[in-house]
Amino acid sequence: MGALLIFIVIVIAAALFFVSVYNSLVRLRNQVKNAWSQIDVQLKRRHDLIPNLIETVKGYMNHERDTLENITKARSEAMSAGTVGEKAKAESALNGAMSKFFLVVENYPDLKANQNFLSLQEELSSTENKISFSRQAYNDQVLSYNNKVEMFPSSMIAGMFNFKHEEFFEIENKEEREVPKVKF
To answer: Would you say the pTM of this structure is higher than 0.90?
Structure first.
């Protein structure tokens, strides 16, 4: 009778442990999905701002058609990207196109003084900051989740229930990784 009771207690403890680990994996996976949705919201906001920005500058930048077309193409590719890795690569290309665009804008003083342009530029800058913050939060969630998927003993349960690694949302654009040079 005593051995049976000990066996039942061990089985119940193992079941509780199993359920606890499984639930923590599900919770972390859902946190990763939530963090990604926060990035996705900000990326959509950014994608929605870009056509307004292009419309605002079209009249000023008649000779910069290629620059505007590159932004439109990069935006389209970013919006159609599927996986986190594809999205990161496409967003890096869009960042590069936008950087070149803002360099070209420097040649148009009337445009830089346009209130609508300044407002859109400020909104875009704010959105970029939110994307950066959301990317950091997402990568933190991915780190926690991937650690849980890889660490013993949760890795056994993760393997049994097909919990897969998540991709980090990393900067692909080499220019973004470089420290800006400041000259006086």
So the answer is: no
